[in-house]
Design a protein that fits this description.
GO terms for molecular function: urea transmembrane transporter activity; water channel activity. The protein is 68% helix and 0% strand. With 255 residues, the chain is mainly α. Helix 3 runs antiparallel to helix 7 and helix 6 crosses helix 9.
Length: 255
């Protein structure tokens, strides 16, 4: 019974509609990572000491807000516009998408991130692709906790924005998610880096060849996303449509 069910779910994950969703995730994640990593590189190019200049943090936060909102908007009707493996994980834990579909989403998001960072590396020549790093005074555990809180806030906003009970307010969902993302960068950028997105941290690390503290940007966000999804669906706002009614490849809005 179990193997047959897994086979059926896998087949649902490779339909033409599902493949379109993966392509949409690739494109939207590419745009998002290109804008966020590119803005960080640009701030270091324009400012003599971007690491300590507050305006550098504002520049990256604004870029994150606009890029996230736009990336979600262009993919929301096709893939759900997750743009983030943590969001995909939260949706899978909540039963809104199947595990095979989530895995294909992850592959699309990771490839898009690596490709975006690679193009930045090749085209800017002398510029180094910036990677996420934790502050010297922070431990890996502390930074992971911070990233978990950031991802919790982001995914909770994703769930709320995609709630059909939001009515007309759901139209501003991508904007609300983008603004939350930008706010979280301002809140934690100097401490943990403010990634909230495992694909974002992974792509820049691959191209830069630096994987120090990479686990921080996976463990924290994935746990935070799972808690946010379970809390919203089962405790704070129960009574959602049964997960079985959700399409396996395009439920919810994501970030």
């Amino acid at each position: 019974m179990a193997p047959a069910m897994l086979t059926a779910r896998f087949k649902q994950s490779v339909t033409p509609l599902a493949l379109r969703a993966y392509l949409a995730e690739f494109i939207s994640t590419f745009f998002y990572v290109f804008a966020v990593v590119g803005s960080t590189m640009a701030s270091r190019k324009l400012m003599s000491d971007a690491a300590t200049d507050p305006s550098s943090l504002i520049l990256v936060a604004v870029a994150n807000t606009f890029a996230l909102s736009s990336s979600i908007y262009i993919a929301a009707n096709i893939s759900g516009g997750h743009v983030n493996p943590a969001v995909t994980f939260g949706m899978a834990v909540g039963g809104h998408i199947s595990v095979p579909t989530a895995m294909f989403y992850w592959i699309s998001q990771m490839l898009a991130s690596v490709m975006a960072c690679l193009i930045l590396k090749v085209t800017t020549v002398s510029q180094h692709v910036t990677t996420y790093a934790i502050a010297n005074e922070m431990t890996g555990f502390g930074a992971s906790m911070v990233e978990g809180v950031l991802a919790f806030a982001l995914v909770y906003t994703v769930y709320a924005a995609g709630d059909p009970r939001s009515g007309p307010l759901g139209a501003i969902g991508p904007l609300a998610i983008g603004m939350m993302g930008g706010a979280m960068v301002l809140a934690a950028g100097p401490f943990s880096g403010g990634s909230m997105n495992p694909a974002l941290a992974f792509g820049s690390a691959v191209i830069a060849g630096r994987f120090k503290n990479q686990a921080v940007y996976w463990v924290g966000p994935l746990i935070g996303a799972a808690v946010a999804g379970l809390l919203y669906d089962n405790v704070v706002f129960p009574g959602q449509a049964p997960p079985a009614l959700a399409r396996s490849n395009s439920d919810g809005i994501g970030a």
